Amino acid sequence: MNNIIEIKGVSLTLRKTQILKDINQSFEKGKIHGLIGRNGSGKTMLMKCICGFIKPTEGEITVWGKKIGKESDFPDSTGIIIETPGFIPYYSGYKNLKLLADLNRKITGEQVKKSIKQVGLEPELKRHVKKYSLGMRQRLGLAQAIMENPDLLILDEPMNGLDKNGVSDMRQYLLSLKEQGKTILIASHSAEDIEILCDTVCEMDKGMMTKLSGIE
Question: Which domains does the chain have, with CATH numbers?
């Protein structure tokens, strides 16, 4: 299967406002695909539709060969960051992720710790998440997205709140995931992020999508 995500004729209308307009696009396996566009252009809503959080008014989305909302409620082997990651504020970062891991029963506590270390955080840190900086919360969100070793990552502005070094670390980490064969769909306001990371770029504007030329 070359195309991991297939979007066919997808439109979305909420409260009589058209959010997405007849989107047709596919995203190939093993590449980093960028979504660019202003706030309100439809990037986040499209990602929510891909993940099954919102049902399109028209059209269909297929991930891993399964129609989202019909054959699958949430795409298999997929990690996500959409908007600011939500955590239990009075738990540590490790305790938050361990709680989620225990619910899914797919990974061990040691694997949770490994994912936290991979994003540059210390799993033994006892500090409650409510005392984390925005950048630390963003790193923890990425740790949550990767901890079950998914083959697809859907990341909405994953660099939010990171300092210069944090952004550099995150870029290198995402490129290393691509080298492992992962597929990544990333929305970013940063032209530099897109230029450094992405193999293909699609622009969203007023709910419509235009595929820009590949930038490999």
Answer: 1-77+151-216 (3.40.50.300), 87-150 (no CATH)
47: helix, strand or coil: helix
CA 163-150-48 angle, 5° bins: 75
Contact present, 199 and 214 (Cβ < 8 Å): yes
* Residue of 69, 58, 43 whose CA lies nearest to 156: 43
- Chain-centroid distance of CA 169 in Å reads 17
Q: How many residues does the chain have?
A: 216
pLDDT at 216 over 50: no
How many CB atoms sit inside 10 A of residue 67's CB?
13
DSSP result, 167-208: HHHHHHHHHHHHHTT-EEEEE-S-HHHHHHH-SEEEEEETTE
- Are 174 and 193 contacting, i.e. CB atoms less than 8 angstroms apart? no
- Tokens (6 digits) for 27: 């995203």
Give the span between the Cα atoms of 4 and 66, in whole angstroms: 10
| pTM, 2 dp | 0.91
CA–CA gap between residue 18 and residue 163 (Å, rounded): 36
Distance set, CA 115 to CA 28, 52, 97, 128, 184 (Å):
25, 25, 10, 18, 17
Average pLDDT of the residues in 3-22: 95
